[in-house]
């Protein structure tokens, strides 16, 4: 007999898999994207981009970075995910707007 799935049921966690906060952020942004993303955007939403942007924000210190500067750090023209990356960093307590 097939098991029924209720979308309100919690998703069981895989106990053996440990996900880094950066991987969690990448998954978070992928879920936030409203339209199916292209391969270019999929690449942009990998854990490493969050590490790079976070390091750039830390290096900027109190001065912070503008969205234009963050876009330069990401360096993916047309990907249009800069705001989502910053939103994820903020949601995970790694950055402030």
Automatic annotation (TrEMBL):
It comes from the Eukaryota. This is Putative B-block-binding subunit of tfiiic protein. It comes from Trifolium medium. The lineage of its organism: Eukaryota, Viridiplantae, Streptophyta, Embryophyta, Tracheophyta.
């Amino acid at each position: 007999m097939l098991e029924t799935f209720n979308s309100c049921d919690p998703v069981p966690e895989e106990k053996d898999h440990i996900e880094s906060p950066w991987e969690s952020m990448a998954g978070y942004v992928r879920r936030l994207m409203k339209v199916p993303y292209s391969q270019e955007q999929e690449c942009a939403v990998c854990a490493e981009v969050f590490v790079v942007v976070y390091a750039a924000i830390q290096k900027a210190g109190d001065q912070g970075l503008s969205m234009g500067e963050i876009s330069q750090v990401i360096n993916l023209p047309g990907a249009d995910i800069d705001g989502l990356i910053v939103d994820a960093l903020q949601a995970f307590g790694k950055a402030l707007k």
